[in-house]
Design brief:
Number of helices: 3
Strand order of the largest sheet: 31-33-35-37-39-41-42-43
Strand content: 25-35%
Radius of gyration: 34 Å
Helix content: under 10%
Largest sheet: 8 strands, parallel
Structural class: mainly beta
Amino acid sequence: MGILSATWALLTPANAMAYDPNDPDIHTVGNYVYEIKNYAGEEKFVRLVGVKDGYTPKGEITIPGSVTIEGVKYPMKRIGGPYNYYEWFKYEPVFNNYPEITKVTISSPIEEIVPREFSGCTGITEFHVNAGSKNFADIDGILIHREGEEYHWGLFRVPPGRGKTKYTVPDEISHIGPFAFLDNTTIKTVVLSPFQEVRSSWTAGNRSISEIQFATGSSSTYRLIDGMLYTAYDIIDSKTRYKLVTCPPRLRLDKYVIPTNCVKIASGAFANTVIPEIKIHDNCRLDTYVFAGSKIQSLKYNNDMQNYLAGLCVDCTDLIRADITTENPDERTVIFEDMFRGCSSMTALSTASVEIAVLEGAFYGCGLKTFPWEKVTYIAGATYEQMTYDGYTFATSDIESITFPSRFYCVPRYFAYGCRNLKSVTIDPDGTGETEIIGQHAFENCTSLESITFTTAKEIGYQSFYGCSALKRIVFADQPDREEICVSNPFQFEDGVKVYIGNNRYYWGVYPAESGTSNATFITSSLSRNSPTEWKRLYCPALATEAYSNSSTENQGDVVEFFSILPSANRPALMVAQNIPAASELSFTVTGVTIGGEKASLNNGFWSIDGTGPATDRDITINYTVDEVDMHTTYPAGEFSGIETVTDSKATGARITGIYTPDGLLRGTDMEKAPAGILLIRYADGSSRRIYRK
C-alpha cells in the first residue's frame, strides 16, 4: 500500500467508491466500471471510474481507448472520477493498492489521468503509451503528460518498481508534476536540468528521495540551500527574499530553522519529510499542505502573516501540539479545511486570538481532546445557508466534550461523526434559541456519548445519534420564555435512554416506527399525544383530563403523574403528590409554585397564596427538577385535572366498572380494595373522574 494511501484512504469520510452504482450513467463492461459523460457542446465519452468487484488487476494491463455500452461505442478519455486539487488526499483511485500490476499500457484517445491514480501499485516497472496520443507519452517506461499539443511535457509518474537509486529527469521534460515519485522507495537522488520546474507536491507520497542535484551544477530558477530547493520570491531594499520550494522527503535533520530571508514556504514543501522540528520565524508565510504526511512534532507560526492554510498538517501523525501566535488578538484565527486532519497524536492547540473560525474537516481524525469553544465565532456548515454541508469538523477525533456555541443556526452534518471518546454534548448553552437544527449523522457512532442537552433545537437530523450505545440521558432543556418548539424529526438510540422534556412548549415529533427501542423512558412536563406508545411515559404533571379520559387507558403503557391539582376550599391552593412508587427510579424536587402570577408558599403539603377562590381560576406554574434537570409546567386557568378528595365508592350513584392507577393498569372495581394515591374511576353510565385516595 502506498505511503499516502495507507492512512488517507482510512480518513476519507465515507471511504467509498468514487461512483454511485445506481446512477444510470454507470456501466460495468468487462473488468471495469465506466461512466458516460456528456458536456455541453461535446460528444459523449466515458471515463473509467472503478474496477469490477472480484477482479484484481495484475501483470500487464491495458486501458482501452473506447468502450461499447448497449451497442453504442464511446471514446475513453479519462482514468479516474471527480478530483479536487485542494482535496487530493480524499480521492479514492480506481487503481488503488494493486501491487501485482507490472506494466500499464495507455491507449491513445485518453486525455487525462487523475494525478493520484496507480497509488499503491508498487510493482509497476513500465508505462507504455500507444502511438497517436496527444496528451501522454513514455520515455524509457516513464509516463509523461501535457495538457495539449501546444504545451510542454511534464513528468507524470516514475514507475515505483524499477529499483533505481538515482534518476536524471530527461531534458525533454519541462516540469515535474504532483506525485511524480509516488510510492517509490528506492530513488535517493533526483537530478534536474537547469531550466526544469518543479510543481507543488511533486515529492508527495515519497520517502526515499534524500538529495536533489542539478545536471550542470546550477539552475536558472532554483538554489540549493541546506540541501533544499529555494527560489527568489521578491527583492526589497536591494535584498533578495526567498521561497522554500522543496525539502527532500528523506533529508535527515534533527531540527531545521527557516532562514530569516525566506518569507514563504510553498505548498507541499515539507510533504512526507522526516524532520521532527522546524522553526518558523514570524515573518514567514505558509501555503497549503506544507507539512502533509510529515514527521513534524510541533508547529508554531504567526497568524498575522498567513493567507490560506488548507490541509497544512494533514496526516501529520507525529504532531503533538500547534501554537498560533499573533500581535493582533482581535484578528480572527482561521482553522482552514483539513488543516489538522489525521493528526492523531495532537493533544494541544493554543491561539492568542479572541476569535476562531473552523472550516470543513479541520480536526477530522485529530487527537485533540478539548477545544476553546468560547472563542468560536464561525463554523463552516453551521449557518442557515450552509445547513446541507457535510462538515466533518471533528469527525472521528478524540474530542471528549462539546459545548456547541449558541450563536449558530445548526450543528453541521457529520460534525462529530464517530468520535468514540465524546462523552457529553451541550447544544445552545446560552439558551438564545439560535441553534435550531442538529444535522444528519452529526453524532452518529459516538459510542461513549452518555448525555446531551438541547435548549431550543427544533429538528433532530436523520441518524444524528444512531449507534450512540452509551447514551442514557437526553435533555430538552426548560425554556420558560420561548414559544412552542416542535421537534419534528425522529431519531434512533439504544435501549434504556431517558428523555427529559423540560416544559410544555415542546411538541415531540418522534414516530413509533422510528424509535428503535422499547425500553426508553419519556419524562415530560406535559402530555404529548404522539409520543411512542411503547415508551414508559412519566408526565410531570400531565394535562390529566386528556390523559385519563381516553377509553383505552389500559393500552397506553406506563403513565405516572408527579403532580396533581387539589383545590382547597379555603384559599387558592394545590397539592403536589410526591414519591409515587412507580416513579421511584427518578429523583425530583419541587423548587417553586406560582398561582395567578404570585409566588406560592408551602404549608402542610399545600402550595397556596392569600385570597379566596379555587386555584383552577388562575394560571398555575410548577417549577421542579427531575434528576437535576430543570422543568416547569404551566396550567392555563381552567385546564386542570379536576381531582376530588374521596375515600370510598359513594361519590356517585352509578356502578363502578373500573379503577385504574396512573400506570394504566386495571385495579378492580371495589373502592375498598383500591390502592391509595391518584386513581381514575370509570362508571357504567360512561362518566369518569379522577380522585386522590388517602
